[in-house]
Amino acid sequence: MQETLLTGISRQHENVLQVIQSYYQLTKPRIILLLLITTAGGMWIAANGEVSPVLLLVTLFSGACAAGAANTINCFYDRDIDYIMERTRHRPLPSGRIQPRDALIFAITLATLSFTLLAVFANLLSACLAMSGIVFYVLIYTHWLKRHSTLNIVIGGAAGAIPPLVGWAAVTGDLSWAAWVLFAIIFLWTPPHFWALAVLIRDDYAKVGVPMLPVVVGNEPTARQIFYYTLALIPVTLLLVYPLHVMGAVYAGIALLLGGVFVQKAWQLLQTPSDLTVARSVFKYSILYLMFLCAGMGLDSLPITHHVTDVVAANVQTFISSFQA
Q1: Going by fewer Cβ within 10 Å, which terminus of the chain is more open, N or C?
Q2: pLDDT digits (tens, 9 = 90+) for 256-304
Q3: Which residue range is the domain that position 190 belongs to?
Q4: C-alpha closest to that of 235 among 244, 40, 45
């Protein structure tokens, strides 16, 4: 199976396994993993910790297909600049291992599969939300914002914030305030996460003319924005505790601990905005932050957690009452 590079050079897959691997790489699986964690978090909270295993698996697989479709189209659209950037030139399209036409067919197939599975096994709302995520990521972020505005990550982050809405809708068939708070958490988390990466690879973005914030305004203003967004993130995560009361003390403690470390790391970057080691630390921690925050949601949602916290609260109340008697 032979493909042609943008430069006219051709590459050839040696076996079927390499073909599968190339298509797998098109989907950007590491990004998909984070999106699926937020989807599962939305489902877990919506179901009060008791999610149907079949619905969970179907929704996560469908979400992976939708995200894979969006990422594949992103690779298709950006194959010109991906060839120039050192970090991305070995991707399947710029390296010539997959033809652009085949990538588009693959993306359409994934999107169709995602919509069909969600519509059949979950509901139409979740299916439409998944498709809206693809459209927003492709048209608003990739086509319009990424190459034309420093707000690309801020506004484009809305696409990455849709998966928890899909998970919530798959369970409940509607979207409550709690679902939109989950959306807001991912929306505010995205700029610190991606801008920290952009600081690390600023030269690559500058080379291809992509106006990421560090390229346009420099590292110091970018570090300041990272710090502000990280600060704003903490009270938003606590909205699930009060006034919405969908999360309890266990989640509140985890959210405060994780948020405190995140703010500390963002503050360190603000003090030394050109220190790439610190920027890398912020970027890596942002991934762990989101994973553990969603794990905290899952832990707090478990029936056994509710039972334990109720027992502890009752004992504390009894202890306090004994002193008041």
Answers
A1: C
A2: 999 999 999 999 999 999 999 999 999 999 999 999 999 999 999 888 8
A3: 176-304
A4: 244
263 CA to centre of own chain: 19
Does some domain include residue 96? Answer: yes
CATH code, domain carrying 233: 1.20.120.1780
CA distances from 251 to 72, 248, 265 (A): 35, 6, 21
* pLDDT(33) > 80: yes
The owner of tokens 């599975």 is 117
Does residue 263 sit in helix, strand or coil?
A: helix
What pTM did the predictor assign? Answer: 0.91
Within this chain, do residues 59 and 138 fall inside the same structural domain, yes or no? yes
- Can you tell me whether residue 2 is helix, strand or coil? strand
Q: Which of 175, 208, 234 is the last residue of a domain?
A: 175
The pLDDT value recorded for residue 218 is 96
Residue 223 has pLDDT above 90, yes or no: yes
Residue 321 placed within a domain: no
60 assigned to some structural domain: yes
